[in-house]
Amino acid sequence: MPSSRPIGFAVLGAGHWGPNHIRVFNSLPSARVVGVADVDRARLQAIQTQYPNVEVTVDWRELLARPDIDAVVVATPVSTHLELVREALLAGKDVLAEKPLASTSPECESLTALAAKLGRILMVGHVFLFNAGILKLREIIRDGRLGDLYYIHATRTNLGPIRHDTNAVGDLASHDIAILNYLLDASPTHVSGTGMSYLRSTQEDVAFVSMFYPGRVMANLHVSWLDPLKVRRITVVGSKKMAVWDELAPHGPVAVHAKHVAREPVDPGLANYGDFQLLVREGEINIPLVHQTEPLRVQALQFLDAVESRCLNISDGTFGRDVVRVVECINESIRLAGTTVRLSEAGTPAVDTEAPRGH
Q: For residues 92 and 124, what is the distance between their CA atoms, to the nearest angstrom?
């Protein structure tokens, strides 16, 4: 693409999230939104009123054929992602697709393989990976100050909004799955989940999920859109310290608690010398400075950098596929009343006859 002009963008989908992409990319000097496509003419009219220089159309194929469009943002319902992302890649465009990348992990795999074959950038919009608090939490974990990781607990609840195209696992838990995979640089090996449909018979409104990561790290998720309180919190428990990310905390999104349980040898004069006693150690709470920035803007800058450098190091198609695969396995476990499901290398859920114990 010419270096003398901003990177030209098309945004497919002007509903709930698409206008945010239009706003962010138009605010960046190295980007320009050239066109927007949507099936709703009223939405297109609203976009053109706000951005007179942006062309609008109900035919997304018109935008893919334009040589002044270098990259495409796909912000449409997930059922359309496979076709739109594939056609954008085939048209020689780099793609930023809203999460989930596609409806199934095999579809995600096919899009990832196509992008690699064509040499195109394919990024998935897991926007919490660009949240300043999550980035600080990852830094704290990686620098070892928590010690050995024991377990993680995540809560994501609210009263609505209620989705009709997926359940609470696909809508809410997918955020925390992406976050945990990013924090731990791994995918879980086993998952189990239970859920219940109270509002409709076909979609679970609430779910409780257990995930088992390499290194004996266990994670538990509670997700619900049928809850009186809006909660966005992740607790990480380590052998030396514990950390909490709370997106809604007034004092700052991250707190590090100098609390742990120490293993002290008992009196060597006693007969059971060599055993240990467990002692609770209390300490201060540290709230590190976190410079809050809009995650969507940080994501956009990362995508622009990848388009220019031809190298993407975060939230690529493989990462997006892994998140979808975990969601599939959790839903399979829910269908089987909580039976533990193992993530196979081929992406097909495998049911374990016996739940993992201390693995």
A: 17
